[in-house]
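tool=predict chain=A
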Amino acid sequence: MTRRLWWSANGVVIDDSVIHALVQRLGGKAEAQTQERLKGVPHERQPQRKASEVALLMMDGWFARFRGPGWGKRTTQKERVEWHEIKNGVFYLHEQAGQTEGGRGVIADKTVVRWQGEPLELGRRLHWEASAGRFGASPGEAGAGRWHALDLESGGGPMA
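tool=predict ok
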């Protein structure tokens, strides 16, 4: 079995399985914290901001390579590599887009959400994050700086 070893700046050797276990444990903690946060109602951080005319929402997906059950084995009947779709969502207000002196595009403030799993969960998380102080108030509230969620599965009408 091939193992990968990592050396730290002070010369300590660490097996890659230790790093993998640490990432899995901390990822689980982060997901639990996110689920707890998503239960609450998002509150706007800039209620005094004037209404925005245009907001942009971009969604995309790409495939990432993961370790399969046969990873690192000399001989195996199991897949060494598994491919999983990662879904991305980006939301920002039009007035937050600009350009550098060289013409390169920049965005002053945006919300980026990545998710591996059901597309509706990506939408739920992106909606919560975009509503949580950066771009608006609780879903469905109208007023300055607020935005309304659209039901993308049913043709883009407002969500109930």
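Confidence is low (pLDDT under 50) at residues 136-147. The chain has one domain: 40-158.
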